[in-house]
Description:
It contains 16 helices and 7 strands. With 331 residues, the protein is of the alpha/beta class. It folds into 2 domains: 228 residues, Aldolase class I (TIM Barrel, Alpha-Beta Barrel), CATH 3.20.20.70; 72 residues, Up-down Bundle (Four Helix Bundle (Hemerythrin (Met), subunit A)), CATH 1.20.120. The relative contact order is 0.10. Bound molecules: flavin mononucleotide. The site of flavin mononucleotide (FMN) has 21 residues, from strand 1 and helix 10.
Amino acid sequence: xxxxxxxxxxxxxxxxxxxxxxxxxxxxxxxxxxxxxxxxxxxxxxxxxxxxxxxxxxxxxxxxxxxxxxxxxxxxxxxxxxxxxxxxxxxxxxxxxxxxxxxxxxxxxxxxxxxxxxxxxxxxxxxxxxxxxxxxxxxxxxxxxxxxxxxxxxxxxxxxxxxxxxxxxxxxxxxxxxxxxxxxxxxxxxxxxxxxxxxxxxxxxxxxxxxxxxxxxxxxxxxxxxxxxxxxxxxxxxxxxxxxxxxxxxxxxxxxxxxxxxxxxxxxxxxxxxxxxxxxxxxxxxxxxxxxxxxxxxxxxxxxxxxxxxxxxxxxxxxxxxxxxxxxxxx
Length: 331
Ligand SMILES: Cc1cc2nc3c(=O)[nH]c(=O)nc-3n(C[C@H](O)[C@H](O)[C@H](O)COP(=O)(O)O)c2cc1C
């Protein structure tokens, strides 16, 4: 997620969710080729399993950048065919590629050539306006899988490329989970992951049974203990650290970046929802909001640990979460 899943956020969420597959922000192939690769590609080894998400429309550029991703050690490279922003559309990347299944077939094939057997996946919508029925989804998915993709991640909404901005494109087109379900029923051997609007453990658990994976975007970002609780209940991951332990981990991780000139806001901006549903949540948000105090991260966190309610700092659970049955994974 652009502006969200940078390396700092990924490292931090990994402390709460040890098994979840993490994705980079979408990176355009030309900016990777012409920019400083380390700026886009560097990560901490603990971020694995880790997917590099690319945007592009040139076989040559996507082959080259997929190869760079695998050389850098990424576990999978993903092609974005779901982003509806004007900028991405003007470059003919993202969701507008859903109108050109034949081109995407060739793009995937080129990426597969660079992959040395590692997985190439595609993230896409169920359609775009004008090509929004199941037959179009099926045609697109067949082209992608025939190109050699090993996994589809499907956001269960169409994208409306004219008249809606990206935010509206994540809320206004209705969710049509049934289209993703129909594709999975028709092609049960294809690994298909579902995405879109999944904000509670009950829905996540139900989808986890029916699909090969569930991608969670906004809820994971807004409420980081959601992923911790999901992993603990569905994947038997250990208890996550408490909020205070988590903050201390962040300090140790971030100090070298701070020494190199980065401001703690680069990291803590991702965690305004850390105390979501707990006492002191508003105080925490104010502490990390501008104007930012001229403090080192260690001092800022020390201040938070001294001020916020101890029961919130000691909590390592998701407030108000639903306890699933530990054997069946159901409610
Ligand atoms: C701020 C923001 C940035 C996003 N950036 C990307 C991106 O870079 N690549 C991508 O595939 N999806 C991106 N998305 C879309 C999400 O991955 C996801 O498909 C969408 O939000 C629906 O899932 P959710 O309801 O779980 O959030 C972004 C979403 C948001 C809110």
